[in-house]
Amino acid sequence: MDKALYDIVAGKQAREGFVSDTTGFLDRYRLDADERAAVGRIDLPALRDRGANPMLLWGLWMTFGDRSLPGYLAELQGGHSLSIRKDPKNG
After folding, report:
1. Rounded to two decimals, what is the model's pTM?
2. Measured between alpha carbons, how far is residue 50 from residues 1, 29, 44, 68 in Å?
3. Which long-range contacts (CB under 8 A, 24 or more apart) does 80-89 make?
4. CA–CA distance, 4 with 60 (Å, rounded to integer)
5. Contacts of 64 (CB under 8 A, 6+ apart)
6. Tens digits of per-residue pLDDT, 46-65?
7. Using the 8-state DSSP alphabet, how is residue 11 labeled?
8. Which residues contact 63 (CB under 8 A, 6 or more apart)?
9. pLDDT tens digits for 11-56?
């Protein structure tokens, strides 16, 4: 799971692949169904609860969130404000 998250955060090409074809991107990683769903939705609380690296969670927020600490903390509490989740084509 951390490898997929790292690739999304650190690599522009991987990130673009994730956004344009989430299913195809996730097929490259050995993820169980819950991990796949959490990564696909960028569900920070679920990723945290599954043991994702905290720095990768912050990186996801800096990539897809509003880049504010209050926003990040609200997201971790279940705020579900990331716009990427609101686009049905993104999984």
Report:
1. 0.84
2. 9, 16, 10, 23
3. 82/42, 82/44, 84/19, 84/42, 85/41, 85/42, 85/43
4. 11
5. 42, 82, 83, 84
6. 999 999 999 999 999 999 88
7. -
8. 8, 9, 15
9. 999 999 999 999 999 999 999 999 999 999 999 999 999 999 999 9
